[in-house]
Structure formats: C-alpha cells, structure tokens
Amino acid sequence: MDKKKVLVVDDDPDIRETICFNLEREGYGVSSAKNGWEALGAVRASEPDLVILDVRLPKENGSRVCQFIKNDIKKGVYRKNIIIILLTGLAVLAVHDPEREKKLRDLSGSDHLMYKPFEMEQLMEKVHDLLIIEE
Asked: Quick one: which of 41, 64, 105, 108 has the fewest CB in 10 Å?
C-alpha cells in the first residue's frame, strides 16, 4: 500500500515542524507550506490525501484556501478527494460554540475543525481516523 501523503500548512515554524515530525514518525509522507499561496501550489503539485490547514495564514487565509481546494475537487481538478482538517486558535478568544464551529466548517468546506492548542496525540488520531475512512 502507498504511503498516505499529508500537507501541513501553518505560518508558525515550530507548530509546522512539530506536526511534520510526528506525522513522519507515524509513517506518512509529509510536505509543508507556510502560507496560503504555497499551500495551493503544494496541493496542485502533489495532491495529498489530507491537508492540515491553519485558519490564520499570510497570503490567503486557510478558510479561503480550503474553499479553493474543495471547489477544485468538485470540478474534477484532482483525481481524488482531499480531506482537510482546519486548525483555529479562535477558541481561545471565545467559549466553545458548536454553532460557530458548524458555521466555520460550512463556510470553509473543511472536513474537520480542531482548536489550538491541541494535544498532538489527538491530531494524530484524527488524521489516522480520517484517512482510514477515506480508503
């Protein structure tokens, strides 16, 4: 079986490198990007199975990047579905609100939303679960 490919997009190098390190340790093929434009280029170049995408990014926010990717999937630009986990630190600013979470997921088209700070173990489990479902 081919190695599943994951693209990690975050402008914080520490977060990006930590996530990449843990994914590689789990046996995934990993690439990364530090802004929205790089993310779109990386998705078009390598068609990852899953993208971990921060909401707050320079050169195009993660929500818009997610919309672009999901629209391209609908148009048949990619040979497969690309799963997107959207990371947001916005939960720190407000009480967890399921309505707001649903609105952000619906607006962006993401498959899952995860709040920063998060436990790395939880993120790895979510990546694994979503990729298993997609097989």
From this structure: 41
